[in-house]
Design a protein that fits this description.
CATH class of chain B: Mainly Beta
Largest sheet of chain A: 6 strands, antiparallel
CATH superfamily of chain B: Fimbrial-type adhesion domain
Number of domains of chain A: 2
Helix content of chain B: 10-25%
CATH topology of the largest domain in chain A: Immunoglobulin-like
Radius of gyration of chain A: 26 Å
Number of strands of chain A: 14
Shape of chain B: elongated
Number of domains of chain B: 1
Oligomer: heterodimer
Helix content of chain A: under 10%
CATH topology of chain B: Immunoglobulin-like
Strand content of chain B: 35-45%
Structural class of chain B: mainly beta
Number of helices of chain A: 2
Order of helices and strands of chain A: HEHEEEEEEEEEEEEE
Order of helices and strands of chain B: HEEEEEEEEEEEE
Largest sheet of chain B: 6 strands, antiparallel
């Protein structure tokens, strides 16, 4: 096996065979030659970083209205993958407990009331964070598939930056009691 | 060294490569998080169904000068306080209604909500709302735990009490301010 044949695996072949063969004809007492092949996998890389907008706040909620979070969440997703072994990268946003996406005292705001959109991704219009997991990432009824990026030879080592806009839709929702409602939206990438 | 050994070594390498292929599908990143905070502030709103109340014809020396009724909805969402109060007031009590240089003072204008008796707009401010001698508290709604979020609807009746009073012919107009306050 050669290094080229190993692909992304780093192969080191210690080949003492030629020398051993040459020696075999001259010295019958030589020990047999051994071939030792070592394979080392280069680490696959998949990461997602919130470069800005990691803390979103609405200062004054309005009942029975759509309340936009003020600035986009800027997400950078980077990868270093083998296109022969990975078809795509998916990015998912989800709430761990969909029924309690935002909590404030005894009142809970479900994830279906939190909407997201990504102009460069799949939900180009505001879509509720109430979908299913993708490739095991996310929670049932509390997830939003943000993008699906095909992997090929041209982008096997790459990154992309996307803006995620968020809003809280309280149209038809019972009047909220005075107070602060907090929650955490998790962003995670997965390969398929 | 035999070909068997070399084959075995190659098999080891192939085995490792296959393992890597399986690992790349389903590879997940570390999770990133976005902290979300939304704050609901205390609110107190007053919504009249109409911005005008009219009286087609004034009858002197009579208390039967009632304007068209105005319906009001008062809504509150609070965390503290013991009462929500609605105050009606005229900015210049001596000139509640004006017809050129002729005035009807606020003491001749009376109001009520519901079945309450008519009272003149001649009281003091309440909770900083209103003006001296030109105000009338229309209701006081107790609030507390369990009722910090609520609303009520009322019909506001306003009339001119012109007992022993004569007016110069003409159109009298004025502005009644309505404002709710939490105490």
């Amino acid at each position: 096996m050669t290094a080229a044949a190993c692909g992304r695996a780093l192969c080191l072949t210690l080949l003492g065979l030629s020398a051993a063969r040459g020696a075999e004809g001259q010295t019958a007492g030589l020990a047999p030659a051994h071939v030792l092949s070592l394979a080392l996998a280069a680490p696959n890389v998949l990461g997602v970083t919130v470069t800005s907008g990691g803390s979103q706040s609405i200062a004054s909620l309005v009942d029975n209205a759509t309340n936009a979070f003020p600035s986009p969440v800027v997400l950078q997703t980077n990868w270093n993958l083998n296109p022969g072994q990975t078809a795509e990268v998916d990015l998912i946003a989800y709430f761990a407990v969909p029924a309690q996406a935002l909590s404030g005292g005894a009142t809970q705001i479900p994830s279906s009331r939190i909407l997201g959109r990504m102009a460069t991704g799949l939900p180009t219009t505001y879509t509720a964070v109430s979908g299913a997991p993708v490739a095991g990432v996310g929670t049932a009824g509390g997830s939003l598939h943000l993008f699906r990026q095909a992997i090929n030879g041209g982008n096997k080592v790459a990154s992309r930056t996307d803006n995620l806009d968020l809003e809280l839709n309280l149209v038809g929702f019972p009047t909220l009691a005075v107070g602060s409602y907090t929650g955490t939206l998790t962003i995670q990438a997965v390969t398929q | 060294m035999s070909l068997v050994s070399r084959a075995l070594a190659g098999a080891v390498v192939l085995s490792l490569a296959a393992g890597m292929a399986q690992a790349q599908a389903g590879l997940t990143s570390s999770p990133a998080t976005v902290a979300l905070t939304a704050t609901k502030s205390a609110t107190l709103t007053l919504s009249p169904t109409s911005a005008t109340a009219t009286l087609a014809s004034i009858t002197d020396s009579s208390a039967s000068n009632q304007f068209s009724a105005v319906n009001l909805t008062t809504s509150w969402n609070l965390t503290s306080g013991t009462s929500v109060r609605l105050i009606g007031w005229f900015a210049t009590p001596a000139q509640a209604l004006v017809n050129g240089t002729d005035f009807i003072p606020s003491s001749k204008v009376e109001g009520r909500v519901g079945a309450a008796a008519f009272s003149p707009f001649s009281g003091g401010a309440v909770g900083g709302v209103g003006v001296a001698n030109g105000s009338l508290q229309l209701f006081s709604q107790a609030v507390g735990a369990g009722t910090f979020l609520g609303s009520r609807s009322d019909q506001l009746d306003v009339r001119l009490n012109l007992a022993n009073t004569f007016t110069v012919a003409g159109t009298y107009s004025g502005t009644l301010n309505l404002q709710a306050v939490v105490q």
